[in-house]
Model the fold of this input.
Amino acid sequence: MAGNTFGQAFTVTTFGESHGVAMGAIVDGCPPNMELSESDLMTDLNRRKPGRSQFTTQRMEDDQVEILSGVFEGKTTGTPIGLVIRNKDQSSQVYTQIKDIYRPSHADFTYDKKYGIRDYRGGGRASARETTMRVAAGGIAKKYLFEEFGTRIRGFLAQVGDIHLEMTSLDHASESVFFSPDPNREAEIAEFIGELRDAGDSIGAKIGVVASHVPVGLGEPVFSKLDADLASALMGINAVKGVEVGDGFGVVTQRGSEHRDEMSSEGFQSNRSGGTLGGITTGQDVNVFIALKPTSSIATRGKSVDRANKDVEVVTKGRHDPCVGLRAVPIAEAMVALVLMDHVMRDRAQNQRIAID
Amino acid sequence: MAGNTFGQAFTVTTFGESHGVAMGAIVDGCPPNMELSESDLMTDLNRRKPGRSQFTTQRMEDDQVEILSGVFEGKTTGTPIGLVIRNKDQSSQVYTQIKDIYRPSHADFTYDKKYGIRDYRGGGRASARETTMRVAAGGIAKKYLFEEFGTRIRGFLAQVGDIHLEMTSLDHASESVFFSPDPNREAEIAEFIGELRDAGDSIGAKIGVVASHVPVGLGEPVFSKLDADLASALMGINAVKGVEVGDGFGVVTQRGSEHRDEMSSEGFQSNRSGGTLGGITTGQDVNVFIALKPTSSIATRGKSVDRANKDVEVVTKGRHDPCVGLRAVPIAEAMVALVLMDHVMRDRAQNQRIAID
Amino acid sequence: MAGNTFGQAFTVTTFGESHGVAMGAIVDGCPPNMELSESDLMTDLNRRKPGRSQFTTQRMEDDQVEILSGVFEGKTTGTPIGLVIRNKDQSSQVYTQIKDIYRPSHADFTYDKKYGIRDYRGGGRASARETTMRVAAGGIAKKYLFEEFGTRIRGFLAQVGDIHLEMTSLDHASESVFFSPDPNREAEIAEFIGELRDAGDSIGAKIGVVASHVPVGLGEPVFSKLDADLASALMGINAVKGVEVGDGFGVVTQRGSEHRDEMSSEGFQSNRSGGTLGGITTGQDVNVFIALKPTSSIATRGKSVDRANKDVEVVTKGRHDPCVGLRAVPIAEAMVALVLMDHVMRDRAQNQRIAID
Amino acid sequence: MAGNTFGQAFTVTTFGESHGVAMGAIVDGCPPNMELSESDLMTDLNRRKPGRSQFTTQRMEDDQVEILSGVFEGKTTGTPIGLVIRNKDQSSQVYTQIKDIYRPSHADFTYDKKYGIRDYRGGGRASARETTMRVAAGGIAKKYLFEEFGTRIRGFLAQVGDIHLEMTSLDHASESVFFSPDPNREAEIAEFIGELRDAGDSIGAKIGVVASHVPVGLGEPVFSKLDADLASALMGINAVKGVEVGDGFGVVTQRGSEHRDEMSSEGFQSNRSGGTLGGITTGQDVNVFIALKPTSSIATRGKSVDRANKDVEVVTKGRHDPCVGLRAVPIAEAMVALVLMDHVMRDRAQNQRIAID
Done:
């Protein structure tokens, strides 16, 4: 109800504020007898981590996750998995200057209106730091899906500002500091981001995620279509303002004769639908795209109000990511993994489907 | 779990297949003492109804909804509201020809793979006819929101194929047979749709919905952000492949200094965010857009397979909408209404917010 | 949230008031490809029906259920099953005399305080007539459980007033007009109930339910232990004030050395636990008992107040059951069936257990 | 779904095994702006703690809870409250002897059958140690209910073996090492428990809980009646095998004329119903009773099997509680508090009720 639980069968409940004591999560419903250790979760946590390059925030967090329960002698037991990451950087003093001010395009105003209390420490619960736990939990889902079905879930930077990136290699994207699928454009991205930072400004981005080897039959009509749950999962990531499945907004100008993915005894002839029909997976790749707004914390002075509704000017000091999109890839992958995992289990409940390779 | 319930506090559970006995729903959690009658729900049901113009499917359904419970002496009692619409057109014979065939871009293939059974009667549960109950339930939410907060939720056709429509009048859109917000472009739309039908083809569309007089503070961090629940609600409508909140994919090329909605003591200076910050309503208009794929049932022959995976060719006989988007406006409005209603109640549970005008 | 949905994986959502238009339900999550027809549901509906003997209320309802969806060509399709029973006896006039009066031990007072509106028609939603839909939905669960696992769920009258009944035959109980497991005590029960009716009074009862051939491993630690979900399911039946699993309150005076069910390679040596350990089924019979309060509607004058809190006297006219417990057996069986069915599916989701015989 | 979350609006999700790294919980939905600190939760944690007297297990745990999030500057913020208690006593070596053995009346057998893996460390997730988090979360609910409505929730030992205790003082019960409501019987209880321990045996118990100053109107028809949710909450506590509301199983022999709580303009004349009618609170005290089975871990040798289904004999070494019921009072109070809190919020969502004193 209050919104901190994701999923129905494979559930993730999270807590934690940016500059509180710790971030944490409980993953409930994980199938038993899967090998799991903290190092399995660190891969993606490290990909998400700030300070990974000179182009992301320099906040220093090693983001070491600790598994508190649900694993015994190296295997999941079927009981809930408690996860925690202690925040090292708990200093809230740097934020006392914005104690009574609403930063433009941040959640400061709305949280205060909703709850009647202002946790001004670096965005509090609204901080993107909350996504550490999505990534950790998503790591569990990714591992299960890969071992059970061979499913791989890989994201990439599709566009940043006016730079459109060709999908050259998902593997390269995975390792690239910009998650760029095109090895030849990284210098260009670096230059663009550098310029933005020097200008005290930021930029939006478009991210894609491809899930391959997805079992057929996942998705629950009519309100939990796979597309619907993906949309919720992805739109719920900080800064996301748009979600597409398959051809997305491109379908607006497509004709039926062009859009429909024809089939033959060899299988589907195309994948404009993005791997779902009627909200249920076809067995093709599931393709999604998301749009992320430009970082709100910028060094350019902006107009706002304080808690007493008095006009003020706000400027963000310290170093922030000029493009939050550059760090969103592992988060988006994790959310796709959580959706697929949840639907594998929901499907089994009713349809007792057998694992495929 | 199985996906036929929407919402958490104001819940809508639906049943019914396109050519089954009836469509129905149970609306649970409706506040008591609101005046409600069947005629309140017929307004939008009539706006959604097929056969409304020569440009939509000619299936004849009067879609008369019956309230079976939850209302006594003209007022809601707080107990669940049972709704039912009997299907008049239950003839499944016309569909026996596709009994063993998967129509391209339909859910025929995926439902069969998921459930191992083929309900070939006009799409069965996957038919857009399922949305009658969303519209009926949405009508209850709309009424409450308007009476309690003055909230209005109005949709419009933003684009069909290459025809982009100016937002001239939401009121006109509401009554227009094409839900066009621009009275001057209707002839053009009619001509375009007519051409498509003659060509046995179809086209995608883009729909917008504006909710005004929305209370501040709605939306639950972090997984039930208002944006996330809107995305789920809208992406779950048949044929939708993309969802945007506010500037949507436009944010990809925006700079932070341009995107952020500055504030003054007079209020917000712009609304690029679409009425939410951190997933919580700001009190500004909530703006969303969706992309709908072209109708899959077209008179142009296409390649597919049958249940035995043998190659076949499929062509849809009978009259179908050349553009499903033309009928999606009341459905999208209803889903936005259900999300807002659910969040009003969820917010009250924790924060006991007071009604505003 | 508002309480009219039961279960998590196999869900039942119900609507309807005693003297409204109809009672109805939506059963979501039913496995596909199970044969199902209305006659499958009538067996238990007839066992629950009023007017079954001279000792139960003479209200005339044939309780003919109609399946509105989810079944095609005689088989479940996996989509939601809509159920409806039209109320024939909708006359609310007989109740106008209690329009402004709270009947003692009825829900009149509490519904009015909660919702601020009085639906005085025969108890409205609080009427035991609401349980028709539990019985109908339970019939679906019973059928599945029997076909898949051989599970049988049978209830019986264990005690009425001071008459304690020996468990002679579950089969006899199933057919007995009093659900008596002891064929030799029926005359005695009849006489006792007759006396109570003549005296204008009523009596409590104790009901038992035995589920045999229950799969091992059902129940979810820690808040959805099978015992916990059974307790909720049974305590939620009208008039129930106590629930026991296994030896129930008898354990208070048992020693550990006496209570513990020892095991050998032959299996469990006893079943004091009632078929669960740690809230998970052992594979033994699941045994539960419930206590039902005496019928509140009696012909003996009682003190109460009206809506203006003025003292009044209330007496129930017309014929009512002197013992609601006499009709509760099929309802209790249905609730046990719904709990087991839900847990079969929940268990599968996580543990993908295989069907047993 | 997997059972580790309690509640719908005020939710508690827990993790942790008896001898794992830590026990933890996430409390979601707590109203903002309530003062809260760790010491608020320690009162009941100390009442529940082992080693409180010579009559309970001597395991040494200081059970110091840490609040990890959701509280800022001493007040709740409306965001999820993370709680953790580190386990000091993680030694699992003492349990290696039962590694492959199912202890009678424990969950060893059923967890292994369900999950296919054996966490033999002191009961793992099935240990009563899991209830620390219920008590901690219940402390938050208790505090809110008391501050908002003056609600007090107090439990007591009603019976242990054949010793029936008079309800002399709830205040005394709260402080008594046996939770005895009768100060004069404590020596007798001590003697009885001492004898049992010397005999290497254990005994069952009956516990009562009284909630006073409960708001009228709590409880959701028809499946979330307050009674139903209380039954679930209480039956889900380790070792509980029976639940009663109000007169409980006593109603079986009551006549309607005797059972019904008559009303006058002064209010209810009695409270046999236990504070609910139709599953909704009347505003009277809510009274419940539970039966707890005798401790399963006893020093008396018993028959069982190992994982290979070979006959074995089991005897528990070390000191265990001869009566788990003696420590269950704070746990039962916590569960009642969680149910009432959840229903306050659920009721507000739909009915926007105003706080009463």
User: Anything to note?
Assistant: Chain D touches chain C through 112 residues (CB under 8 Å).
